Amino acid sequence: RGHAASVRVLSGFRKSAAVLQCPYMERIDSTQNARVKNWVRLHQKKGRDETGLFLIEGIHLTEEALKAGIVETIMTDIEPAFAFPHVIMTTSAVMHKLSQNPSGAHVIAVCRQLRK
Description:
The protein is about 25% helix and about 25% strand. The chain is α/β, with parallel strands linked by helices and about 120 residues long.
């Protein structure tokens, strides 16, 4: 989008054209943030059914969801961020609250459900 972006790769992460640093990201630091609380509700079927949204975890799944065009928001607590208009940098505490993976996740995306 006219802004220069630098590619950075962390050890242990796959090199990907979709992983870019974006200098104008929003930031959420509190686990008590209203949006974080709403996203946590997506862990329950009722929350997913009411909103038509769901959470995915991990770089690979997020890349696939981006290709499918269903991503609404991406949250991350690592330096590289996706070249996507709505990326939010968060703390590890926020990521831990959003993740259902016992070992945590560094990238979580909110996606739209495909209607039948």
